[in-house]
Design a protein that fits this description.
Length: 280
């Protein structure tokens, strides 16, 4: 029981979620839960002043109203009741708040809410996991890259499904820390994460991959199309997530010009993922 814990609580629309998560990314103990038409974000902190400052900026910059409450229970218990478990064909993905959770799928992944994106609760992540599961049933792959790994969730999905070594990168230093913690938490040791921007880095200069997964937004996915194309082997595949349904055609037209053809696409709410194959 901790009587001096404070909670900042507010609601964010789907479109603004990523922007706001980036804005609050320096704070710890962040949870976000999907409600019907919006995401509810809570940030817990022992210092009320820290939350007050965040509250003011949310109002000033993003016109978002928020509330600060004093809470009596510790934050894990507090959020446990809200936790949404994601179930896909092979995975049960949770933030690990409920220690009595029974394993119902072949693989269990625990990705606590922290400072990086990707607890599995966002449509773009769920869609990327579904696309990986569907693609990997069709074909055996041996080399992988997860571009914009965040918490590491897609790397860990690939690592559990394929037992192969997975390489990844993220531009954000918080990802390096979260990734390491999450890899340990999930009993994995075959994933390696680098801090770099895009795919132009000496560590992978001589490498190319059979499958690249990339869940970032439309603009960066287009900006680095050339880099992605250079790193996917001919006959290889790319999974592109983080796009909206009405952006599919435009994104596909860009990648088509790099010699990719559409294998399949999946959608959830307004979000989509596309899976492309590079022509030989
Ligand atoms: C939407 S999150 C996806 C996280 C996780 N892969 C998932 O599927 O939930 C996008 C991530 O890509 C990273 N990112 C964005 N642009 C990048 C770039 N050019 N190079 C490397 N990482 C990038 C961000 O820092 C963020 O962690």
């Amino acid at each position: 029981m901790d009587s001096s814990l404070f909670e900042l609580r507010f609601e964010v629309s789907r479109q603004n979620l990523e922007k706001i998560l980036i804005f609050i990314s320096k704070l710890k103990n962040i949870s976000w839960f999907k409600k019907k038409k919006y995401w509810e974000i809570t940030i817990l902190n022992h210092r009320k002043a820290t939350l007050e400052s965040c509250r003011e900026k949310l109002k000033q910059i993003y016109k978002i109203d928020s509330k600060i409450n004093k809470i009596k229970a510790n934050w894990i218990n507090h959020n446990q009741k809200n936790e949404k478990i994601i179930n896909t064909q092979f995975f049960q993905i949770s933030q690990g708040l409920n220690s009595h959770l029974k394993k119902k799928k072949k693989y269990k992944l625990t990705i606590p809410a922290a400072n990086s994106f990707g607890t599995g609760q966002h449509e773009s992540t769920i869609l990327a996991v579904l696309a990986i599961e569907k693609l990997i049933k069709k074909k055996k792959f041996y080399s992988f890259f997860d571009l914009g790994t965040g918490t590491g969730i897609l790397s860990f999905v690939l690592a559990k499904l394929t037992k192969s070594k997975i390489l990844s990168c993220d531009i954000d230093s918080a990802s390096i820390v979260n990734f390491g913690e999450n890899m340990k938490k999930n009993g994995l040791n075959n994933c390696k994460n680098f801090r770099f921007n895009g795919l132009k880095h000496h560590v992978i200069r001589k490498k190319s991959f059979e499958l690249i997964v990339c869940n970032i937004l439309l603009k960066p996915i287009i900006k680095i199309a050339n880099q992605i194309s250079n790193k996917v082997r001919s006959g290889g595949y790319v999974i592109l997530s983080g796009i909206l349904k009405d952006q599919i055609n435009f994104l596909y037209s860009v990648y088509y010009s790099y010699n990719f053809v559409m294998l399949f696409k999946l959608s959830l709410n307004n979000w989509s993922v596309i899976v492309l194959k590079k022509r030989k």
